[in-house]
């Protein structure tokens, strides 16, 4: 009751002091519409997969291949660079040899690190890929494809001289968060909103 009496009084005082600019001032606009901090240490946020200056970013992966931030879908294994993507003509990690890695050694400017994403965690295959990379004289990081995608995105956003040699995973482990997000997405997609 007191608020209802004070609000018109407060509005009348403000109306007299801001005659031309004042149309209507509610209680919420007084509290929440404060000026943002404009100093040197202002925090900003960038969504990296929507920033074309950062180059190619891997948005998602599946058993079929990869989807990039520019809308391109790469089917099968790929060789990805900061601004270029190529189809990598191997069938599985068993086919990785020093010859199949030659492309990464011949590039100019020289690539500092090649991130190899494998579809398997088999120790014999990991050792053979490591030997092939040493034979090709490359600095490599050998990871499962899921982790290799994230590592490539992170290093590419830092403008490092990197390349990725990625093989799509054979299967994808789905956790409870993925299932919940999917249910919410499709639930919101098909729910009718009567209040619109």
Descriptive tags:
196 residues; 8 strands; five-stranded mixed beta sheet; alpha/beta
Give the helix/strand layout.
Blueprint: H1 2-17, H2 27-32, E1 58-61, E2 65-68, E3 73-75, E4 78-80, E5 85-87, H3 102-106, E6 113-118, H4 123-135, E7 140-144, H5 145-157, E8 162-166, H6 176-190
Parallel strand pairs: 6-7, 6-8
Antiparallel strand pairs: 1-2, 2-3, 4-5, 4-8
Protein model, in words:
The chain has 196 residues and is an alpha/beta fold. 35% of the residues lie in helices and 17% in strands. The protein contains six helices and eight strands. It has helices spanning 2-17, 27-32, 102-106, 123-135, 145-157, 176-190, and strands spanning 58-61, 65-68, 73-75, 78-80, 85-87, 113-118, 140-144, 162-166. A five-stranded mixed β-sheet has the order 5-4-8-6-7, sandwiched between helices. β2 and β3 (73-75) form a beta hairpin. The radius of gyration is 27 Å and the shape is globular. The relative contact order is 0.13. Mean pLDDT is 79; it is low at 1-6 and 17-34.
Report the biggest beta sheet as strand number plus sense, adding barrel if it closes: 5 strands, mixed
Which structural class matches the secondary elements?
A: alpha/beta
Low-confidence stretches: 1-6, 17-34
In DSSP terms (H or I, runs of 4 or more residues), the helix count works out at 6
Mean pLDDT over the full residue set: 79
Specify Rg, calculated over alpha carbons: 27 Å
Strand content range: 15-25%
Going across the biggest sheet, name each strand in turn.
5-4-8-6-7
Percent in helix: 25-40%
The separation of the N and C termini measures 33 Å
- Could you spell the SSE succession in H and E letters? HHEEEEEHEHEHEH
Count of distinct strands = 8
Shape category: globular
């Amino acid at each position: 009751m007191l608020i209802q009496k004070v609000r018109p009084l407060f509005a009348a005082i403000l109306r007299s002091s801001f005659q031309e600019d004042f149309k209507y001032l509610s209680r919420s606009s007084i509290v929440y519409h404060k000026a943002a901090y404009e100093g040197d240490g202002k925090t900003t946020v960038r969504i990296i997969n929507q920033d074309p200056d950062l180059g190619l970013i891997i948005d998602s992966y599946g058993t079929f291949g990869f989807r990039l931030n520019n809308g391109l879908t790469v089917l099968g294994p790929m060789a990805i660079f900061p601004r270029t993507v190529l189809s990598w003509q191997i069938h599985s990690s068993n086919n990785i040899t020093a010859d199949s890695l030659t492309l990464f050694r011949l590039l100019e400017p020289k690539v500092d690190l090649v991130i190899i994403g494998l579809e398997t965690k088999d120790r014999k295959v990991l050792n053979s890929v490591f030997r092939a990379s040493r034979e090709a004289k490359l600095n490599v990081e050998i990871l499962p494809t899921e982790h290799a995608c994230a590592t490539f995105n992170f290093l590419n956003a830092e403008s490092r001289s990197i390349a990725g040699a990625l093989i799509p995973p054979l299967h994808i482990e789905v956790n409870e968060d993925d299932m919940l997000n999917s249910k919410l997405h499709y639930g919101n997609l098909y729910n009718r909103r009567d209040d619109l």
